[in-house]
Design a protein that fits this description.
By secondary structure, the protein is α/β, with parallel strands linked by helices. It is built from 27 helices and 19 strands. The strands form four sheets. The protein has an eight-stranded mixed beta sheet with strand order 12-11-10-13-14-15-16-17, with helices on both faces. A six-stranded mixed beta sheet has the order 1-2-3-4-6-9, with helices on both faces. Helix 5 runs parallel beside helix 8 and helix 5 packs antiparallel against helix 9. The protein starts with a strand and ends in a 20-residue tail after the last helix. Bound molecules: (S)-3-Hydroxyhexanoyl-CoA. Monomer.
Length: 719
């Protein structure tokens, strides 16, 4: 797993050979250890170059090995042996040097990078810290503040930035390996001690304690309960306060603690789940490996509202030529100004030129005849969308793919009005569409594999995490959100306040609680949908009592709030009070407390004390329960898809792995027992009846998440 060769007479060339990313598996570590020992012992070898096969230096420790017992030589002594040796060792970095890969390079005496290479210590994103000396060597090399930033965020840096920071010594546009071999010969005989980072002191500015304290405060505020960033700061503090060996000891202790944590398991699960969802498959046998995407060079977006503008920006940023369509000149001009401003703002941040030349604006649908793919992003109204699809079907070229950006409408119904239902697919973007990473790709019953491949491939080009979902009301994300929102409303009826519910959810790790998110999105959105569904407003069945609708319990609280003109942040008042319309800072509102108290009195509800545990169990377990129903109905490929939808689209804390992973961590028997308990206490509250899949899994001994598919009653899929 490491190839050894002697080149240019006196240079030992050690090549890591573990495709695709040369991860430091046990076999690779053994290979490096043996090769380094051989090079250091061979009197004919005067210097050493370490590189990676296939243009990749090293993607770090082999994450797949973390779940297994440790075998093979450990990394720390392997890297120390390189540094302590008496022959200069040069790392030739092409592709990436991440995590243990960069730590290996930091143990070398010199580092040469290709101009396209990237380096970084992303361990924190896996719930770990750089534990092969990274927390001790990097601060010694580049100083405290930049090392803290890189280690606590896991940010990757380009070769150019790495050169500026002093992480690498040279950058080349040619072969890094060739330059490293040449360089390795030039440095023979030069003093090595100054190049051995473990022998150096961390350069310390006078305000070192302030820097460390501020970094700790920053990560605590950002981490939302994640432990790894905090441990990273503690480890770097040791690089300042302790000698190297004691610092290494501290690094190992902190790593041992993190390594066993459920957070590390959750984050590593997310790493693999994110990659797994890209490998989609359909019940027909078609899958990502055997379905070719159609080429898309020219796309169109219909409707330049909030979603359409974001989608247009995302497409242009991915280098596609885009035709943007609006119904009239005024709307078009408004949309154009907004899109241009967004693109300019983005380009400015990246020091680039905005690609306004890729855009063409029109009010004339006939200008779409040469586009390969069209994304309809008009108002969420079935009749309107059908009208647009009918027109598209007649003006677009026969093989153009028609996508709808709907957040829950029936894709089949839309497809049925076109002459090409097999070329229709849902692409559910999340607002703001040029920022949010999630894309639900909705398979209609007639969407062809080729069209699924095209939508998934486009998602990838846009930098999205794209997840294939089935065509059911709300698809996966919004379908599961409904029970979550409902429980939050019922909790208000029973005695909670918006700030109590939000506080518990934020403590759990959501960036914002459910009521703050509703205020941000605008309360009128849901109000309009409920009116259309006959749950409130003039279409309500007069026979329905106030707290029942369509045969089940209903909380009219959100409607009452809207009726008072409280529409959320935009009106300065919603579930919270804001300093001004459009204000962002939410403060608890005594008027809302009064509204809740009056409501309870009116309906004879005696408020009770509600704790965070109940908030979490009611809201999250109801959401998870719906997740099991989604699986049972064959609307998702597996729990990994559901989890990635929640992590990337709904702010589910990544260090808790997503709702289905969380359920497995809590224990399925516990989830079942609590749902049964709440259902017994609140028999008329919907969504608390445990799903049959959850029951079946518990009866069968709660198998691990990757075995859940085996327990689907009808091993069918709507995908
Ligand atoms: C003592 C502790 C020391 C140390 O401090 C700890 C660490 O180093 S922690 C590690 C710190 N390092 C990191 O966190 C880096 C994690 N890796 C990455 O960031 C990206 O994978 C990389 C940029 C390298 C390539 O991106 P790309 O070109 O878009 O390609 P891709 O992403 O699709 O991956 C291709 C395939 O390789 C697989 N695989 C990848 N890396 C690893 C790994 N380390 N291991 C195992 N497997 C790995 C990946 O699953 C996929 O497999 P499959 O079966 O084909 O789905």
């Amino acid at each position: 797993m490491a190839r050894y060769a002697q080149v240019q007479g006196s240079v030992a060339l050690i090549t890591l050979t573990n495709p695709p990313v040369n991860a430091l598996s046990a076999a690779v570590r053994l290979g490096i250890t043996e090769a380094v020992t051989r090079a250091l012992r061979d009197p004919k070898v005067k210097s050493v170059v370490i590189c990676g096969e296939n243009g990749v230096f090293c993607g770090g420790a082999d994450i797949r090995e973390f779940a297994k017992p440790m075998t093979g030589p450990p990394l720390v002594p392997m890297i120390s042996a390189i540094e302590e040796g008496d022959k200069p060792v040069v790392a030739a970095i092409e592709g990436v040097a991440f995590g243990g890969g960069l730590e290996l390079a930091l143990g070398c005496h010199y580092r040469i990078a290709h101009s396209k290479a990237r380096v970084g210590l992303p361990e924190v994103t896996l719930g770990l810290l750089p534990a092969a000396g990274g927390t001790q060597r990097l601060p010694r090399l580049i100083g405290l503040a930049p090392a803290l930033e890189l280690i606590t965020t896991g940010r990757h840096v380009t070769a150019q930035e790495a050169l500026k920071l002093g992480i690498v010594d040279k950058v080349t546009d040619q072969s890094a390996q060739d330059l490293a071999i040449q360089f390795a010969q030039e440095v023979i005989g030069q003093p090595l001690l100054p190049r051995k980072l473990s022998t150096q002191l961390t350069p310390c500015p006078p305000d070192v304690d302030t820097i460390l304290d501020e970094a700790m405060a920053r990560v605590k505020q950002r981490a939302r309960g994640a432990m790894a960033p905090v441990a990273c700061v503690q480890a770097v503090r040791a690089a300042v306060n302790l000698p190297y060996q004691a610092g290494m000891q501290k690094e190992q202790e902190l790593m041992a603690f993190l390594f066993r944590s459920s957070q590390a398991r959750a984050l590593q699960y997310c790493f693999f789940a994110q990659r797994a969802v890209g490998k989609w498959s359909l019940s027909s046998g078609a899958h990502s490996g055997n379905s070719k995407p159609r080429p898309v060079t020219k796309a169109a977006v219909i409707g330049l509202g909030t979603m359409g503008r974001g989608i247009t920006v995302a497409l242009v940023k991915a280098g596609l030529s885009v035709v943007a369509v609006e119904t009239n000149k005024k709307q078009l001009e408004m949309g154009k100004q907004m899109v241009s401003a967004m693109l300019k703002h983005d380009a400015q941040k990246m020091n680039a030129v905005p690609r306004l030349d890729l855009l063409h604006y029109t009010t004339d649908l006939s200008e779409l005849k040469n586009t390969d793919l069209i994304i309809e992003a008009v108002f969420e109204d079935m009749a309107l969308k059908k009208e647009v699809f009918k027109k598209l079907s007649s003006v677009c070229k026969p093989d153009a793919v028609l996508c709808t950006n709907t957040s829950g409408l029936d894709v089949d119904e839309l497809a049925s009005v076109t002459k090409r239902p097999e070329l229709v697919v849902g692409m559910h973007f999340f607002a703001p569409a040029h920022v949010m990473k999630l894309l639900e790709v909705v398979r209609g019953s007639r969407s062809s594999p080729e069209v699924m491949a095209t939508a998934m491939h486009l998602g990838k080009r846009l930098g999205k995490v794209s997840v294939v979902v089935g065509n059911c009301s709300g698809f996966v994300g919004n379908r599961m959100l409904r029970p979550y929102l409902d429980q939050a409303n019922f909790l208000l009826e029973e005695g909670a306040t918006p700030e109590l519910v939000d506080g518990a959810l934020e403590e759990f790790g959501f960036p914002m609680g459910v009521f703050k998110v509703s205020d941000l999105s605008g309360l009128d959105v849901g109000w309009r949908i409920r009116k259309e569904a006959g749950l409130t407003g003039p279409n309500v069945d007069p026979k329905d009592p106030l707290r029942r609708r369509q045969g089940r319990r209903y909380s009219p609280l959100p409607d009452l709030v809207c009726e008072q003109g409280r529409l959320g942040q935009k009106s300065g008042r919603g579930w919270y009070l804001y300093d001004k319309p459009g204000g962002r800072v939410a403060t608890p509102d005594p008027d809302i407390h009064k509204l809740l108290e009056d409501y309870r009195v009116r309906h004879g509800i005696r408020p009770r004390q509600i704790g965070s545990q109940e908030v979490l169990e009611r809201c999250l377990f109801a959401l998870i329960n719906e997740g099991f129903r989604v699986l049972e109905d064959g609307m998702a490929m597996g729990p990994e898809g559901i989890d990635m939808i929640y992590v990337f689209g709904y702010g589910w804390p990544r260090h808790r792995g997503g709702p289905m992973f969380y359920a497995a961590m809590v224990g399925l028997p516990r989830v079942l027992e609590r749902l049964e308990y709440y259902q017994q206490v609140h028999p008329d509250v919907p969504h608390l009846q445990p799903s049959s899949l959850l029951r079946r899994l518990v009866v069968n001994g709660s198998p691990p998440l990757d075995k859940w598919r085996d327990f689907l009653q009808r091993p069918h899929s709507q995908l």
